[in-house]
Amino acid sequence: AENKAPDDDDDDAYIRNRIYTTFIGVGIDFNADLVERISDVRGCNYFTVKSTRDFMSKLDEEFEFWVTPLVFNVVLQLKCEGNACQIEKVFGVNAKKAAAIQSNGEISKVNTLFP
Length: 115
Known about the structure:
Helix content is 37%, strand content 23%. The relative contact order is 0.16. It contains 5 helices and 4 strands. The longest helix is centred in the last third of the chain and has 10 residues, at 95-104. Strand 1, helix 2 and strand 2 form a beta-alpha-beta unit. By secondary structure, it is an alpha+beta fold. It has a two-stranded parallel sheet with strand order 1-2. Strands 3-4 form a two-stranded antiparallel ribbon.
């Protein structure tokens, strides 16, 4: 697979036409950079399988959950009246992202949420 994220024009076309994509990674040889780019595109997701049983389960019992987006542009943000509370410290992200979370209160942002 080519490691290229779509540009804004491509993204708009996918949205207008309701084109969504699910990628399946087989085994442990899955390109982390590509996965990161995939998960940033609206309507795209991915999962990995490690066995035939796991693959069959995903395609048989869980298929609709993996290919049907539930909501778009979900944002979890801390807001309070009069600045009575604030995010003091952020763990698990780089310093740039931590500073952004502390300044805007945006705790989590998901482009596409699948059930």
